[in-house]
Amino acid sequence: MGDASGEKTNRWLHEEKDDDDDDDGEGCDGEAWETLNGCLAQVQSVLDQNRLLIQQVNENHQSQIHDNMVKNVSLIQEINANICKVISVYSKLPADFVDIVRRRRSENESNQKKKKDCVDLNLPATQ
User: Fold this and answer.
1) What number is the average pLDDT over the span 112-121?
2) pLDDT in the model for residue 101
3) How many CB atoms neighbour CB 13 within 10 A?
4) Distance separating alpha carbons of residues 116 and 120, to the nearest angstrom
């Protein structure tokens, strides 16, 4: 289930990127897609790991063997740590996008200034 949804997400991201792949600042940005794709891949990996850990916890619980029940404590702690990782990745994502937007705005302003300077001097505009 997790693997299939991860593949669908990755396929969707690549299809969308291909459709909107224009770097003129108006549409989607390759760096933004890479950032989002990296974030989702990290999260999917952690969630897949949690799925396996949860299966192990369930098996241990069903066995009713004391040692297995004791092992569940550390497995549940690992699950909780993984949830913290997911929260951290998602919390960092908006800041990453803000950085990308700020860089793009700065680049666009710099390019606009260069174009204006070239027009003022009657020079051919370069990018």
Assistant:
1) 67
2) 83
3) 16
4) 6
